């Protein structure tokens, strides 16, 4: 009897080991050490200790790390393992992290015909479950030919220089409303304590004005409308839930985890609010180049709503965070403020330098479309790689005094070699279609703000990872009237 039990336990252990060895591809570290010379493939890439089945996800399961500090975890990964490091997801699927300029450039410049960005699977899964609302997973998550056809139909108006130049007078007006709102939100020491909320309202106003062609009034004092507040909060929850379903264990595939439920709730809220905004479109809305081009695109009607939703969601928080980082750096360096007032090129250089130091999208993920040698390892096509542009931008191999805010470096001709590691909007064919627009408008907002106020950043900036890199908590800064 006892012998039978021992034999069946043995059989189970052998079966489990065989499954991990043959199907999951797991190899214990001692195996990798002895076989590393002949297999300089992904298995030899150094990284945290990987357990069978769960890979390196135990780091997060055991609470050793939290997702809100994921940016610090990657700093450590770089410091410990060097220019190439590997994590393993559930099922020991490798994810390779690249920190070296050469490898990052290699990946970003060779995206192939349809560069593959790993989709947010939970969003894709939810959208597939709602064919009444969505015809596809949308521009941000689609891949291959269907991505290309959406991109071709939906983005030309957004990226056109005419759309942007026609929009600039509107931006001047919005920037002046933003300064009025700042003025009215100060306390007796000229401090604005809820700068994050106010920047959210600016992100909403600008994105809606661009996409829907309509001033929503989110910047009017007391104009914090219910719809604006709900939309900004839903978009924030959407990013947080995307982070938790994307980087956390994928239990949401088995049952509706709290993170998945939050994702669905925020996706539904954004959908309903966007439908309401589209429904209430008036004549001015119909004049918007972006809105018009989406409406007349030859695609399924459902794709049009999804596109408006994706544009609004992609624009609000990225813009808010980028503006907050920019104001913080300028507020910390009073010497640059006079130069911004005098010279438009200098305001642009401040923005570029701010993107170098605090890119809200601090890493870019891709799926390799073919076997590629990176950092001395042969990685197979299909491997997920993450390019850590944010970390590479603070590496002294790539920039002198990398942690210093020196906008001047962007006024020198020699800095052009930084392109591709400084990619705050991504790179290649999947690059952000909002890039040109943002690059034009943020310097305008900055210049207006600096002309109106002397900005002082008093508190130290702390960072948090919310799928995007964001300032932690409510940001407070002083805005003294400039005399
Ligand atoms: C400071 C503001 C912004 C930043 C930092 C930013 C950053 C990014 C990044 C890093 C990507 C991924 C690109 C890649 O994988 O190579 C992206 C994609 C995208 N962004 Fe932005 N973005 C911003 C504003 C906007 C705005 C205003 C819109 C639209 C109105 C927008 C729409 C999109 C869309 C639709 C995609 C997906 C493109 C595709 O996959 O083809 N973004 N953005």
Automatic annotation (TrEMBL):
CDD domains, alphabetized: CYP24A1-like (cd11054)
Highest taxon above the source species: Eukaryota
TM helices/strands, residue ranges: 6-26
Keywords tagged on the record: Heme, Iron, Membrane, Metal-binding, Monooxygenase, Oxidoreductase, Transmembrane, Transmembrane helix
Cofactors required: heme
Residues the entry annotates as binding heme: 432
Molecular-function annotations in GO: heme binding; iron ion binding; monooxygenase activity; oxidoreductase activity, acting on paired donors, with incorporation or reduction of molecular oxygen
Gene3D superfamilies xref list: Cytochrome P450 (1.10.630.10)
Keyword Isomerase in record: no
Family from the record: Belongs to the cytochrome P450 family.
Annotated protein name in UniProt: Cytochrome P450 monooxygenase CYP314A1
Source organism phylogeny: Eukaryota, Metazoa, Ecdysozoa, Arthropoda, Hexapoda
């Amino acid at each position: 009897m006892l012998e039978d039990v021992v034999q069946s336990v043995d059989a189970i252990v052998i079966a489990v080991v065989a499954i991990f060895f043959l199907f999951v591809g797991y190899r214990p570290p001692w195996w990798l050490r002895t076989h590393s010379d002949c297999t300089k493939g992904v298995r030899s890439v150094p990284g945290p200790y990987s357990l069978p089945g769960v890979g390196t996800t135990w780091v997060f399961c055991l609470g050793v790390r939290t997702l809100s500090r994921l940016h610090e975890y990657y700093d450590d990964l770089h410091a410990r393992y060097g220019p190439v490091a590997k994590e393993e997801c559930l099922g020991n699927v490798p994810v390779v992290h690249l920190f070296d300029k050469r490898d990052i450039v290699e990946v970003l410049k060779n995206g192939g015909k349809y560069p593959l960005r790993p989709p947010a699977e939970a969003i894709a899964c939810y959208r597939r479950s709602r064919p009444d609302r969505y015809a596809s997973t949308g521009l941000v998550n689609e891949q291959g030919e269907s991505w290309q056809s959406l991109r071709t139909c939906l983005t030309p108006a957004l990226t056109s220089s005419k759309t942007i130049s026609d929009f600039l007078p509107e931006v001047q007006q919005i920037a002046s409303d933003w300064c009025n709102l700042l003025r009215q939100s100060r306390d007796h020491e000229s401090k604005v304590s809820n700068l994050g909320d106010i920047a959210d309202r600016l992100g909403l106003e600008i994105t809606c004005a661009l996409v829907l062609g309509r001033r929503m009034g989110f910047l009017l004092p007391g104009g914090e409308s219910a719809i604006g507040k709900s939309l900004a909060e839903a978009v924030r929850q959407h990013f947080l839930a995307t982070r938790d379903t994307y980087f956390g264990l994928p239990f949401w595939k088995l049952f509706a985890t709290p993170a998945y439920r939050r994702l669905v709730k925020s996706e539904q809220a954004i959908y309903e609010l966007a439908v309401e905004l589209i429904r209430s479109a008036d004549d001015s809305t119909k004049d918007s180049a972006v809105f018009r081009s989406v409406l007349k695109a030859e695609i399924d009607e459902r794709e049009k709503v999804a596109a408006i939703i994706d544009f609004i969601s992609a624009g609000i928080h990225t813009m808010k965070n980028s503006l907050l980082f920019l104001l913080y750096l300028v507020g910390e360096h009073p010497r640059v403020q006079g130069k911004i007032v005098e010279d438009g090129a200098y305001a642009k250089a401040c923005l570029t330098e701010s993107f170098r130091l605090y890119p809200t999208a601090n890493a870019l993920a891709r799926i390799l479309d073919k076997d590629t040698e990176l950092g001395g390892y042969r990685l197979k096509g299909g491997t997920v790689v993450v390019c850590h542009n944010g970390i590479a931008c603070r590496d002294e191999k790539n920039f002198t005094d990398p942690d210093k805010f020196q906008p001047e470096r962007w006024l020198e001709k020699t800095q052009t070699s930084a392109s591709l590691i400084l990619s705050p909007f991504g790179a290649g064919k999947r690059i952000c279609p909002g890039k040109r627009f943002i690059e034009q408008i943020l310097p305008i907002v900055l210049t207006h703000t600096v002309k109106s106020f002397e900005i002082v950043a008093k508190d130290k900036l702390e960072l948090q990872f919310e799928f995007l890199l964001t300032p932690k908590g409510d940001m407070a800064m002083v805005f003294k009237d400039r005399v």
